[in-house]
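Here is one chain, start to finish.
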Amino acid sequence: MKLVKREPDDSTGINMTPMIDVVFQLLIFFMICSDMSINDVAKLTLPTASQAVPDKGEIHRQTINIEKDGSIYVGKVQVSLDQLEDEVLRVEAEIYKGRGENASSEKPILIRADREVKFGVIQRIMEKCAKHKIYKLSFGARLPQT
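Its structure:
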């Protein structure tokens, strides 16, 4: 048997194609996730509050937007007050109910209302939240201009 001497192969290296594919998939994933986190915030003229604090941006909270004319939006979908109660608040309260028979919901809710909205609209939403034992409410406001 005769042994054949082989020439050294110059094509030794790491194939980067799979790594580039993974990087692009991660990039797309994070772009989609970050876009969804800001979709539920409508452009409203918020009321001013001297004790307003910067928003921490909780991930799992529900945002309810109320426009000047009193129309209610959950995300980009307009809902009536009854739909808000039946399709959003009741379901959220059941999913995030705390432990115990009379436990309240652990779901935080952000209510953002235009500064021209009458308080009665916000009050009815607060009553619907209380009816379903949702007590973790926060309200959108801005600091006064100095």
